[in-house]
Specification:
Helices cover about 40% and strands about 15% of the residues. It contains six helices and seven strands. A seven-stranded parallel sheet has the order 3-2-1-4-5-6-7, sandwiched between helices. Bound molecules: NADP nicotinamide-adenine-dinucleotide phosphate (NAP). NADP nicotinamide-adenine-dinucleotide phosphate binds next to helix 1.
């Protein structure tokens, strides 16, 4: 059954079809898992990537049971590692032959004073939130350009364009991601490849906490649910070929943004 609010199956006008392949990072939970479910419901084939092998396997089993054999695969990938990113690209080509839609969704961040971030945390954050999306685009763009068809979605944050104390490294990385994403769009659009930066407000996931099971337990019940954001991201698949949404800002109505 499809997620609430998600239309099943691509419309015939979509440039994507049942042969199209999406790679989704951060697919083990939160927004990435919801995006993977939405895309599979739309009929795409999906490669799931994250570090948590058990969670990936559980989602692979769930989606395979729902949509059939051969439609979903998963690859364990630590996005801090360029080698792992290369292996993810290889696994995608081996399983599915290529990638038409890349959703660079994985992200990390902590709300605490700058000096309480360790240097290791700062390094990891920049690798996951900024370097990895560039390396992933580098790996998958050539195939998209060759086929003159592709979509890259960067899940940034509304903090990609406003300042916030106690999240300085995260805000810096998301500003950088917006800069990369918008510039890349203007470079590759002539090849038929679209790039969209998603700028969400608060989402009810376990982001920033130590407990991955905390999803759905925020006090702020007015936050976006991951499925609600995923449905808006899945809408991007339906745009006519000549239309691009370069920035997609989505907020809970009651957030102060
Ligand atoms: P989440 O529930 O914490 O999920 C984060 C995902 O990133 C997990 O699947 C995690 O998988 C993956 N990840 C983390 N480190 C990784 C690494 N080193 N290698 C590979 N994968 C890694 O967070 P979320 O809320 O869904 O966040 C998704 C995106 O939305 C992020 O880019 C975040 O910045 C952005 N965002 C979130 C909010 C919010 O309020 N939650 C608001 C605006 C923007 P593993 O741990 O299994 O590797």
């Amino acid at each position: 059954m499809a997620e609430p609010g998600t239309a099943t199956q691509l419309s015939p006008a979509s440039v994507f079809d049942r042969d199209s392949v999406a790679v989704v990072t951060g697919a083990s939970r939160g927004v990435g898992r919801a995006v993977a479910r939405s895309f599979a419901a739309k009929g795409l084939r999906v490669m799931l990537a994250a570090r948590s092998a058990d969670d990936l396997r559980a989602l692979d089993d769930e989606l395979t049971a729902r949509h059939g054999d051969g439609r979903v695969a998963h690859a364990r990938c630590d996005l801090r590692s360029a080698d792992d990113i290369g292996r993810l690209a290889d696994a995608t080509r081996e399983h599915f032959g290529g990638c038409d839609v890349l959703v660079s969704n994985a992200g990390i961040g902590w709300y605490k004073p700058f000096l309480e971030h360790t240097t290791g945390e700062i390094d990891d954050l920049v690798r996951v939130d900024l370097t990895a999306p560039m390396l992933l685009a580098h790996a998958f763009l050539p195939g998209m350009i060759e086929r003159r068809r592709g979509l890259i979605v960067h899940v940034a944050s509304d903090l990609a364009r406003r300042f916030l104390p106690k999240m300085a490294p995260y805000v810096a990385a998301k500003f950088g991601l917006l800069g990369f994403s918008g510039s890349l769009l203007r470079e590759v659009k002539e090849h038929g490849v679209k790039v969209t930066t998603v700028l969400p407000g608060l989402i009810d996931t376990s982001f920033g906490g130590d407990d991955p099971s905390a999803e759905g337990s925020r006090d702020d019940s007015w936050a976006l649910r991951p499925e609600e954001l995923a449905a808006r991201i899945a809408d991007l698949l339906e745009l006519p070929p000549h239309v691009v949404i370069d920035e997609l800002a989505v907020h809970p109505l009651h957030q102060d943004f």
